[in-house]
Design brief:
Chain lengths: 83, 155
C-alpha cells in the first residue's frame, strides 16, 4: 500500500510518500502507526505522540481503530489548519 | 434550476466580484449571495508574520470540500456554492480562502457559508506554515475550530 505524509509528519519522516508492506498482524491505523514508529529514528520522532496524528484512507478521514485491509492509500498528518 | 458548484485549489489569487458574477450569471432565482473571505493576518499573538505557506493533500482536499458542499446543499436550499482555497506562499493582506453561497433568501446563504467555513477549517486537509522573525513553524490547530464545526452536529 501507498503511504503519504503531510506537514510536520512529512518533515520528520523525511519523505512525502512511500510504498510499504506491513505484516498481516498490522490490522488497524493504530497498529500501522506503531509499526511505522519502530522503523527508525525519523519515524519514531514523527509518530512519538500517536493521539495527535490524523489519518485518512483513500482520501477520507478515519479513526485510529479503522481497519486498513484493502486500503490503496493511507495518509498521516497533523490536525488541519486551513481556511 | 440545478445548483452551480465550483471547487478550486490554486496558487493564484481570486477575484471576488468575478466569482460572484460567475455564480449568479444568467439566473433570476437567486435573491442572496453571501461571500466569506479568509485573509492572511500580519500578526498572531503579538508576533509579526512575514508570510504563510499553505500545503494541501491533493485529491483529498477537493474530495473533502465536495463532501461538505454536498452536506450544505442537503441542509439548505442553495442555488450555488463556490469554494476556492489558495496554496503556496501567501503574504499578509492577501486572500487565503473564498466561500460563496447563493440562495433564494439570505438565511440559507448566511448559515451555509458559516457551516462550510467551520467544517473546512476543522476537516479540509490544508496546513499552514508561518514565517516570522524567529524562523518558520507549523501553525497549531485550535480546539475552538473543532468546537465551531461540532456545534453544527447538535440537534
Amino acid at each position: 500500500m501507498k503511504v503519504k505524509y503531510f506537514a510536520w509528519v512529512r518533515e520528520r519522516v523525511g519523505k512525502s510518500e512511500e510504498t510499504i508492506e506491513p505484516p498481516s498482524s498490522v490490522r488497524t491505523v493504530e497498529d500501522l502507526i506503531a509499526w511505522l514508529a519502530q522503523r527508525g529514528e525519523t519515524y519514531a520522532h514523527a509518530f512519538e505522540t500517536p493521539r495527535v496524528i490524523r489519518a485518512a484512507i483513500d482520501h477520507a478521514h478515519v479513526k485510529s481503530n479503522a481497519a486498513i485491509a484493502g486500503a490503496r492509500e493511507i495518509a498521516f498528518f497533523p490536525p488541519m489548519t486551513g481556511g | 434550476m440545478t445548483a452551480n458548484v465550483t471547487i478550486r485549489i490554486q496558487e493564484a489569487d481570486f477575484d471576488i466580484a468575478g466569482e460572484i458574477s460567475a455564480l449568479t450569471k444568467g439566473r433570476t432565482d437567486i435573491g442572496a449571495v453571501v461571500s466569506f473571505s479568509g485573509i492572511c493576518r500580519g500578526s498572531e499573538g503579538g508576533e509579526t508574520i512575514a508570510a504563510l505557506t499553505l500545503e494541501h493533500y491533493p485529491g483529498m482536499a477537493e474530495a473533502e470540500i465536495a463532501r461538505h458542499v454536498d452536506t450544505a446543499m442537503s441542509r439548505w436550499p442553495l442555488s450555488g456554492v463556490s469554494v476556492i482555497h489558495r496554496i503556496g506562499r501567501i503574504a499578509p493582506g492577501e486572500n487565503i480562502v473564498l466561500v460563496l453561497t447563493a440562495s433564494e433568501h439570505r438565511q440559507a446563504a448566511f448559515q451555509a457559508a458559516e457551516f462550510l467555513m467551520d467544517y473546512l477549517k476543522a476537516n479540509a486537509p490544508f496546513w499552514k506554515r508561518e514565517e516570522n522573525t524567529g524562523g518558520t513553524g507549523w501553525v497549531d490547530a485550535r480546539d475552538h475550530d473543532d468546537d465551531a464545526a461540532a456545534r453544527w452536529t447538535k440537534s
